[in-house]
What does this fold into?
Amino acid sequence: MYIQQLFGLGARYGVHRTVSVQFPRGLASATTPSTPIGLQRKQRAPEDTHTMRRRLLYQMRKRGILETDLLLSTFAAQHLSHLSRDEMSDLDVLLSNIDWDIFYWATDKTQPPREVSDMPVFQKLKEHAAKRGSTIVRMPDLD
It folds into this structure.
């Protein structure tokens, strides 16, 4: 799939410039049920549970959007040490999604995909988000 864009200034001076962008193959069909959720990323080397837990803790604290950082970092502080290996794997898949999507799904602003809503760890995140209320939240300290 190609997109061609005409720059406005070029048209004014009689110069037309087009830019062609090729999207990855899976992008056009991202909404099909057979497509895995989340952003595509490289396969990670096998890691032990402790390393995985530490990596997830870092990824949950450093997302880039304050609202998602606060939601995920407080969830990590309360629940990450008790999650099973399977739940951490699901959480890893969940974290491959866009920050605003995670935030809106967890706070019931938008409907998550079925693959996300069926994850037990996502249900825990939704319960955590519902309990936050209107209290002032700050980033938890690292151990």
